[in-house]
Every structure is written in structure tokens, then in C-alpha cells.
Amino acid sequence: MHYCIKLGGIQGEGVDTVGELLSAYLHARGFHVYAYRNFTSRIRGGYSSHEIAFGKEPVRSKQANVDLLIALDGEALRRDRGLVSEKGLIITDESATEESQPRLLSFPIASKAKTGPGNVYKWTMALGVMGALLNIPEKEWHSVIAAAFERKGQAVIDTNLAALSLGYGLAGSSPQVSSPVPDLDGSQVREHQGSRLIQGSEAIVESALMAGCDFTAGYPISPASEVFSLLAREFKPDGPRRAVQTEDEISAVFMAVGASYAGATPLVATSGPGLSLMTEGIGLAAMTRTPLVVIDAQRTGPSTGMPTKHEQSDLALALAGGHGDAKPLVMAPSCVEDIFTDLPRAFLLAEQYRSPVLFLTDFALMSARTDIDALHFSGSDLAAARSKRILPGVPDQMFHSTGNQQGADGLPTDMPGPRKAYMTERMKTLSKVPEGDNFSYTKAGHNLLIVALGSTRGAVEAAWPEIRHEASALYLRLLSPLPVEELESIFASHKRILVLDCNASGQLLSHLKANFSPHDKFCSALRFDGEPFMGEDIIRAVKEAMDNE
Amino acid sequence: MSKDYDRGLKPTWCVGCGDFGVLRAVEDSLASLEIPPHNVVAVSGIGCSGRISGYMNAYTFHSAHGRALPLAQGVKLARPELTVLALGGDGDGFAIGLNHTLQAARRNVDITYIVMTNNLYGLTKGQTSPLSPKGFVTGSTPHGSLDNPFVPASLMLAAGAGYVAQSSSADQEVLQGLLKEAIAYKGFAFVNIFSPCVTFNKIHTYQWFKEHLRPATHNSTDLGEALSSVNEAEGLLTGLIYRR
Fold first, then answer.
1. Is the ipTM of this complex over 0.90?
2. Which residues are CB-contacts of A432 (< 8 A; sequence separation ≥ 6)?
3. A424 domain-assigned
4. Are strands B83-89 and B112-117 parallel, antiparallel or unpaired?
5. Nearest CB to B67: which of A254, A393, A398?
6. Domain that holds residue B216
7. Tens digits of per-residue pLDDT, B122-165?
8. Which domain CATH number covers B120?
9. Cβ–Cβ gap B64/A215 under 8 Å
10. Which range marks the domain in which residue A367 is found?
11. Rounded to whole angstroms, how far apart are CA atoms A511 and A451?
12. Does the beta-carbon distance from A262 to B62 stay under 8 Å?
């Protein structure tokens, strides 16, 4: 049983700040949390929402229905009221509607904010209204607010607490309502020492630093910019580690190639349009056998597409990596936890294979905030792998690297023999499937095998109680080289294979069909409207797959 | 000593190509500065000029068209103790890679950028470059180039380069003096070398450069003077243009 509280309003007015307060509170109470941000590609204004799914069981996907909607303006109310479930509750502002119903309560939040603490505090007031209606003791918010605004100083903390009190006061006189989220009553759901809230972009930075990343070059792009910003905070200009904001993604990837060639551990993070530009540098890394890790936070394409919306449509480009058999290794973590094992592994594989590695994430994985338990890291042997490579500065070992086809002497050649020998060796190396966590497999029903990537796992897990009698689930984490032998027996033990593609053309389906037969065993479900799959989509897709058997 | 910097290969350049002089000058300058070859990383672009790194005995990287500068900056930022050179042609630096060139100047990473200017594309068999004069006839401009050329030194001064110098590849004495200064300079240094293409450029020949280039006489520590003197000469100056 999961609940969803959705905050909707005008971008830049505090929806996200208060959403984060609410997530922090729910997490402190012991709930599992999944907070999904929905924003537009502009700085201020426009509709923005923050929806927080929570419950006593783990949750890693958006919910189709909303139990409690706080919509502080007319547009948010119009957009989202249809999502509110029958027993749900809507809290709104008097300026948004003249309506008043037992399950739609409006309060003079904006007007009281304006004459009181100021307009920027109206969302904190709304939080107070919600807290009062749900009978959450006001003092419970104090530590959450103090922690969230610690960096901004005591005055900001005090004003927020005052605004919260105003909200409690506004709701105080309203009639009692039955709570749409009865489990949220101020009591502690579970103890969870070591658990914390994190989003994918933060996990990437933490695990990259853990793996020894000491260089990043990047160009701003949603939803990848945060990776650069967080690394830039770590890498101070006077230190040995560097963060360079470049003129474009081409420059970023070539700087990383240079840094890697020289012995650093660079990370570059980008999103679809940036990946298009980076293919040039990825090709050079492939041809010169230079280790390189590129994060691609997939978003809606082609071209600019919908920059702040979810999709998984860069797989085909990633598998090619560029023109002319660039063929990087391609990885795709299926959850935040995977990032902590798979990104250090990506650095290691890049070094061992002397190849670019594309690390595919997606909008939801990067930007949704969720709870994870304490993780225990094991170090990787990156230094040992790197010691086999000659780095500049070593006497008597000078060599030439070139993006041209090189012969045995490292110099450009256009002779058929060296060309064929080089590519044969490279293809052989790149086809070796490494040992390790190449996929995650949850074995249950035998009728159907669900194959999914990235954050889609969360939707499959949401549907799991409904589908487990029919289906098993497999989340592919290594897409190239594809662990064909390991997968074959799993594929063979299911009657049908349902491939979930968050793109319009079925890119994962195509990749699997290119490597497995018989093809009529495969069926497909697509979603490409900018939203991630949700549990309901999976239940429906499983039903359809079984009906069509 | 300078042979320590030579791989002993026979360049594929045409007999008489200006790039021979550039190769020799780079090797001799490194030798004279006594920088051990294994501490040198030379990154080149694509084109006839891009082949230069392959002939040098050092850690050499023949990168992609227009991208020598980003790669070279990555090397230097990762390993500040290394001497890093970026080398390329005028197509590399002032067409496909122009943005990187300007940004490298303002970023001021301590590398030396050496451009071999022949005012056209040689390896692809003669097309117009952003430095070709208006009316210039090539395979890609059979009716003459319609576009105005860039003046590289002006661009670099405007972009904030701290060291800007020019020479002919034929004038080893001047060239080596400037290259040594540029390599020793702490910060981004730009050396533009007029390096004739004897096969496709029948206008900008050794003789033409001899007749048109003149030594810079302005105060090279004054940015304003440097700019106006370069602009007045339409870029055809040799020697130190500016040093901050």
C-alpha cells in the first residue's frame, strides 16, 4: 500500500523546497519514499510539481493516483485534480477556486503570506495547513526545518517556523476531515539506521569519487548538470583534481580523453543532445584504446525533445557509439544501489578493455529522490588495471596514438592487413563478457519474463505482487557486450518475453532480437509520452501479453 | 640532442612543404630547452599538419579534426608537470576548431598552440580555408572565395591569449627563438607559422611570404598597439606580437 502526496504550483515559488521537507519528514518517520519532480524547461513560472509516493514497503516509481493534492494556483488545480482518488483530499488556495466541498478545502494561504512572512513562505504555510489537517504535531517539523535551512541561517529557520505556525492556525478552524493518508499520523513506522534519501545524480558523484574520479569536464544540460556541479564543489581550483566547464560537449569529451590518456580518472556526464556531440570523442577513445566513462542521463528526444521529461531512447546510439564500429561497452544501472557497484565497475572495465564505456541512466533515475539503506563498498583494483598502461612521462617508452587506423608500429596505415588485424583483435576483446553483475534477475512465474532497463525496474516492482504468479523479471545492466550465454537459459525457461521500452521504436526489443531467437517469443510494451512506466502500465502489459499468448 | 626528438621517419609531406621547417624548429627548440622527450606530449589535429606528431619522438597523440586543443588541455590539467604542445593547421584551428581555439586562449591553460598556416586545406586536395583571401580559387571555390578571411593574431589577441607570435617556417632563427619563448611561457601561448603548401597554393608561396611579411616593430607589451599593428598589416607580421 503506497500513498501519494502531490504538490503543484508555480515553478520557483517553493514547491520543490517544501516537497523536500515533506520527503525528509516522511523518511524520518520511517516511511519509504520516492519523490518525483516535474518541472518545465524555464527558470521561473510555469507549472511545476513534486509528487511524493511513500509507504511502509519500498517504493521506486510514480503512483498513478494522488491521495492528497496541495495545489496553490488555478493551473495546478485544473491539471491535477483529476488524479485525486475518491477518498483523496485537495488543499488549495482561495485564489485558485471559489469552490468548497468536503474534500476540497481552500484557505487564504497566499493572501496571509503576502501580509505576513512574505510570498516565498506560502508553501511552508501550506505544509502547516496539511500538518494540521492530518493531526501531525507541529513540533515534529522543527528538526526537519532546522536541518533543511541550516546553511541559510537562523533567521530563515525562524521565519519558516513562523510560517508553519500560521498554516497550522489557518487550518485550525476547519472541520475535521478523515485523513486520505491514515498511516501518516506522527507515529514511527520503522527504525532505519543508516538509511538516507538520495537521487541518482548524487549517487553517481559519490560512487565516482569512491572509484577515484579526479577530473570532470562538462557542458550544462538537463538532467545531467547536477553531476558536474557536485563534482565541481569537490574539486577546488587550487587542488590536483579538476572540474572544467567547457565550450561544448565535444570539448568536454576530448578533455576527458586527454586526461585519461595522461593517467587521470575522468568522468563526463551528459544527456541525449550532448551524447550526439560526444560521439566524435567516443570514437577517438575507441580507436586509440583510451579508457573513458561517459554518463548519459537519457531524456526525451530526438533533438531538444522535452528536456525535462523522461525517456530511454539513447540505447541505439549508445550501442553504436558513433560512426564506424566504435562499439563502446554499454551499461545501465537499474536502481540507485546499482550505481554504487556499477559505476566503479565502469571505470574498471574501461581500463581493462581500454575502451569507452557508456553508462546509461534516465531522467527518473537521476532526479527522483528515494531512500537507500547503508551500503558497504568494496574497493576496485583500478590502479592495478591502470598499471598495465604506459602513461606519458615514462622514459624510453614513448609511443604514438592516433585516431587513424594504426599499424603495429602505432603509426597511421591504410594497408588491409594491419587494419583487419587491429579490428579483429578489438572486436574479440569487446565481445568478451566480463564476470560480475551483468543483470539482476528476480525469479518467480514461468509464463513470462519481463526485461527492463534503468528506473523502469521501480514500476515492475510496484506491480510485482499482482504479476509475480505469471512473471519473472530481469533488469539488464550490461548491454554491450550482451551476456548472451547467461541469458539464453533464462530466456529458454519462460514461455514469452515482455520487453519494456521507454521509447517509441522499441530499442531494447531490437537489441534483444538481434541476439536471440525465436523472435515470436518476444512481445513489447512502449511508453514514450515523457513519463516513466508506472505499476499500472506493467500490470496491463502483462495481462495483454498473457491474453495474446 | 635534437635528434632525440625525432622518430627517424620520413614524413609523407610533399617535397618543399613548409611543415618540414616547423617539425625541425619544434624539435630543435625542445632540444635547446633541454626538456626530456618523455616529458613532452604533442597533440595534433587532422590534415597534412596533423601528421607532425607522428614524426616526433615524444608522447604523441594524433587526435581528431579541430580537437587537438581540448585534448591537450585535458593532458595538461591532469599532469601539470608535462610540457604540452597542440599542433594543427588553419582549418583545424580557425574553422572546425575555432571555438576551442578562442576558449583555450581565455582558459589560459599552460600549453603552446602551434598553427601551420597555408591558407587552404591540403590533405583533402585543395579547398578554401577561413584564412583564404576573398576571390581565392580552389576546388571548393571554383569561382573564387566569397568570404572575408580571419586574421588569426587579431582573434587570439581579442580572445585574451597572453603570448602571440608569428613567423615563417622558412625563417628558422626567428621561429626557434619564438617557439622557445612560447614553450617556456607560463600560460596559453600561440605561435602562428606561415607554412606554404607547395602543391595547392600557387599564390602564397615562399616568395610571396618573403615579399609580404614584415617584422613587427610595435611595443609588444601593449595590447592596443599589438591589435592595431596586426590589423594594419592584415596579419602579415613576424616576430613577437604580444606578451602579457
1. yes
2. A481
3. no
4. parallel
5. A254
6. 2-7+18-243
7. 999 999 999 999 999 999 999 999 999 999 999 999 999 999 99
8. 3.40.50.970
9. no
10. 198-386
11. 12
12. no
